[in-house]
Write a structure and sequence with these properties.
By secondary structure, the chain is an alpha+beta fold. The protein has two domains: 2-53, no CATH class; 65-102. It contains four helices and two strands, in the order ααββαα. The chain has a two-stranded antiparallel ribbon with strand order 1-2. Strand 1 (39-45) and strand 2 (48-53) form a beta hairpin. It starts with a helix and ends with a helix.
């Protein structure tokens, strides 16, 4: 791999990124068999051809605060919203006018 990077590193038409990917980060990564494949298939993204090279699977490790702050905040907001909806359902009775609902067209 390093020989390829050295050979093409000055090229304006090739870009290399070295980063960690998690499930859901990239469609190619999600569909790749990490135990068997070294190089993924390729896909077209915004006019560029993209492929992944498997440099190994990392052991699970704790996230840094900067990496997890958004996830924790979103989870807490979802928790608060569920509590709020539950409180509203306990306080108010919900009635659906099925005749009116069935008359709505898209």
């Amino acid at each position: 791999m390093s020989r390829v990077i050295l050979e093409f590193s000055d090229s304006a038409s090739i870009r290399f990124e070295n980063r960690k990917l998690e499930e859901g980060d990239h469609n190619l990564a999600d569909n790749m068999d990490w135990d068997q494949e070294i190089v993924s298939g390729n896909s077209e993204t915004e006019g560029s051809t993209v492929f992944l090279i498997n440099n190994g699977i990392l052991k699970p490790e704790p996230r840094k605060l900067e990496e997890s702050r958004g996830l924790v905040t979103a989870d807490y907001q979802n928790h608060l919203e569920k509590q709020w909806i539950q409180t509203l359902r306990e306080k108010y009775n919900v009635n659906v006018n099925m005749e009116l609902l069935s008359g709505i067209k898209e």
